[in-house]
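User: Structure please.
Assistant: Input sequence and predicted structure:
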Amino acid sequence: MGYNIPMKVEGRLGLPTREASSAIFSHPDNIGLRIPASEVSAESVDSPVIRNIVFDLLRVAGANVKKEAIPNSRYMVGLHARQLGFGENVMVVVWNANASAKDNPEGWQPLFRAFINPKITEKSDEINFDNPEGCFSVDQNISGIIPRYDSVTLDALEVDLETFISKGEIKVTDVRQQSPNKFISRVIQHEVDHGLGKLFPHHATEDEGALCVITDRDEFFRYRASEKTNISPRLIGEVTAPGTRPLLAEERERLRNNSAPFNN
């Protein structure tokens, strides 16, 4: 998931990693996106492969070890290794992100957290459609109004990023964390889905506007930059956001043909 929120993208951390190709997202038709990620064994946690994956996730997501914000830079609120062509179950999430940059206090800095073998073990009874979803691993003109649990509990091995950044070593702690708010709950569910071989359209209902396509990017991004940017069009009485239209039946079918069954 990606949002335009102030953040500086820092360069390499001085660790060996794959070259620039690792920053290219897997094509939406790539079958690898629909195959569950592999669990990381205890013996492999501090291996060169996992170090490279964590490094690439931080670099591509926009982590900045100097913590210097530069306006109008881009960073991602979540990213899974599957999206970069890796097969291991590793993801990063910005734990203090808001749906809109307008909600961030002055001097706000993103808190990146990296998780190995993440699993959702508890879910709230409440579900919301509050925030539209998009994904770099889906056609970037596609947006969805997707039902997500208000709160989830995440079990995982958490990487000590201070040690990783300073020494290039991976040290982990078993954690059980409840999502801090509905938006981060949505991000966690979105990224854990990648580890299960699912993309956000898998959860779309058949309602009109549940999936839409951007038809006028200027109008759409003016809308996203407005005060309405952090809420679903449904909450303001609109079927889809300005500058978009609902997907046609044949377009939804094409998505079905290029991915696992929906609503499973």
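The chain has five helices and twelve strands.
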